[in-house]
Amino acid sequence: MSFMRLNIFKAALCALLFAITAYTADAQDKSTEMAATAQISCINTAPGEDASTQMRISWAANNNDTYLLYTHSGDRRWRHAKKVLPQQQEQCTVFDGRSSKKADGTVFNESARFVKCGAQINALEPDTEYKYVICKDPMRGVARKDFEDMMNDVHTFKTAGAEEWSCCIISDFHSYTPLPARLESAMNMLSQVEKHDGSIDWVLHLGDICAWGGSYSFWERMYKESAFKRYMWAGVNGNHDNMSRTYELSNQYFRNMTYAPENGYEGEMGVCYHFRYGNALFIMLNNESMRSDDGLLAAQKWVKSVVESARKGDNKPDFIIVCEHYQWFNGIDGKTSQYERWYELFDELGVDLALAGNNHIYVRSASLFNGKVVSSSTCGTVYLQTSSSDNERGQGMNDTLSFNRNYIEYRFTEGGRTISALDMKVNTKGISISLLDRNGTVLDSSFIPVKKNRVFKTDIRGNYMRDSLDVVAQRCSKSLKAAYMAGKLLSTNDSIPGWEGYPVQLWEYYTGVDVKAGVQKRGLVYMLNPDARKLARWIINAVYDVKGEISYEDVEKVRKYITWQSGTQFPVSGVVFEDMYVKGEYYPYLFKDGVTVYVADEAKWKSANAHPTDEQLEFYTTMTHDDLAVNTGRFARICSTTREMYYKAGGTNEVGRSDDGQRSKAWLTTVRELYKKAWKSDRNFLIYAWALSNL
């Protein structure tokens, strides 16, 4: 066979098929080794950043000699096929050795070392159906069986660009090879959506499509389903997709089983991403990276930049759709979940639809804006979460809602055996969403109109609205609820030595049952805690004085840090119980003037079993500086300010250093006077000092 014919052979699969008959026995023998080793699996289609002209194809191979061949679906003989080499070819070992299970339930370790391949197809025609195959390099010799396998593994997708398009939304089918009925149930449900809407263009999943993301064999089995061959799939990383059987957590399982756009943020490239499909901008989030406050703020900052950038372009999206795995509301009783973390930003950005899964109960809210139900014609976000679809891992719900009755319009579950999915149809007028049960019956419908005269939160209250005093004070009121020592108010005393004229309050409180002592421990402490507006003013001014501007991220960082560090509590004198090292084992820490202190006469006043007597508690509330050891603690309430932060911010009193043996008691007097000054001011130097070192 000539090299010219081989080149034609590579360019068009049709020519390859005709050429098979011309292969000699020697060529077929030579191909045997190649056919045995060049295995291809886990082929799937993801959107490009602009799905009207770009698609991203992922597959796993045993070597570097594979490529993609694509053409229009109407090109029967592949005469116009084009070859695309993978832009990504990386050795993947993240699944190798992970504990898993075989189809018969036998525990085994995955043997999965492969070349992760990813190819982006560019310059596609909008609103067009395409087909593709993953090929092995014919220059290396290819057996007839290989071509037959290729033709049996043709994948298709449709680019965006139609005035009206639709997708199936599904989630939580926890594909698990020992229980194949899970995947079968989900695929049957998808078929019901196809029967309901004969023009499905792609599939959107909201996570937990794999029982253990670390089990490569589970993905491999799942991707053999015809639904993954017929559609582009776009989805989010669920908590199950993010873990192995032995709870080894990694977003690399998800990342290596698709080829999502690399337009996320640090640590989340190819996991968090955004893409345009028609007139909608989709933003895909990873809840597993948002467990901490810093992780949440990073995600929110990214979402804000994506939306603002999209709205500055010439082709502005009609709809903003944000997707994550964890639910907005608890479907059992309606209690607020992720909604609390996101609604303010969604209001500011004008998010139209927020999609989630995880809870295994379908929940749909009314259009919500600024904490109220609104007409969806100009503003508001609809929060919607899917049920499970595996007919096995659903859950029940209360007959009536205990929370957010005015927010939630519809819920659905069948209990443990639940199956449902959604049909979402989008055009220039709006988004229509229908909930279908296992029989294809429509249970719930909603419509989100395009907002031609969209109103943003910033339009109503100004750019400062989110961080105005009233708004921040509302958030600070939530922080004040963390003041766990504010149990029973015994008295208010404005004549405490050193604190004369200040309304210091004496509080009695009890810990939970101590896991070691087996009883609750009683505490007594004098405190001078700010109210919500005072705390808000301190935080806002600290941020402004440090940064010269006020941002939501910085204000929230300070507020949440104060909440976490001190619960907004300033102990003037007394005992503070904390289970810092062992959960449920409460240890008494003594405080004076907002700083941890140690008694000089430990034999008399230090509790021997971490359970102070009533006499000791009374002493702790009245102890003076003379009763204390030379060294104090490092941090000053309410923001855990250190001596070093104080000096950096311009503090001039000599208060020692944080090193052992240098923690002078002069720190107590300085902290006391700074806090007293703040009490009668809109600024708190201690918070400012922390912000200067941490913002």
Description:
The chain has two domains: 161-459, Metallo-dependent phosphatases (Purple Acid Phosphatase, chain A, domain 2), CATH 3.60.21.10; 464-694, no CATH class. By secondary structure, the chain is an alpha+beta fold. It contains 19 helices and 30 strands. Helices cover 28% and strands 25% of the residues. Mean pLDDT is 90; it is low at 1-37 and 459-467. Strands 14, 15, 16, 17, 18, 19, 20 and 21 form an eight-stranded mixed sheet that branches. A six-stranded mixed sheet has the order 13-12-11-22-23-24. Helix 1 crosses helix 2 (13-19) and helix 12 (469-480) crosses helix 13.
Provide tags for this entry.
about 700 residues, alpha+beta, 6-stranded mixed beta sheet, elongated
What's the layout of helices and strands?
Blueprint: H1 3-11, H2 13-19, H3 25-37, E1 40-47, E2 55-61, E3 66-72, E4 82-84, E5 88-92, E6 99-101, E7 107-109, E8 114-121, E9 129-136, H4 144-152, E10 155-158, E11 165-170, H5 181-196, E12 202-205, H6 216-222, H7 226-230, E13 232-235, H8 252-256, E14 273-277, E15 280-284, H9 293-312, E16 319-323, H10 339-349, E17 353-356, E18 362-369, E19 372-373, E20 381-385, E21 408-412, E22 420-426, E23 430-437, E24 442-449, H11 457-461, H12 469-480, E25 488-493, E26 504-513, E27 520-527, H13 532-547, H14 552-566, E28 571-578, E29 587-592, E30 595-597, H15 602-605, H16 614-622, H17 643-648, H18 666-679, H19 685-694
Parallel strand pairs: 11-12, 12-13, 15-16, 16-17, 17-20
Antiparallel strand pairs: 1-2, 2-8, 3-4, 3-9, 5-8, 6-7, 9-10, 11-22, 14-15, 18-19, 18-20, 18-21, 22-23, 23-24, 25-26, 26-27, 27-28, 28-29, 29-30
Helix pairs in contact: 1-2, 9-10, 12-13, 12-14, 13-14, 13-19
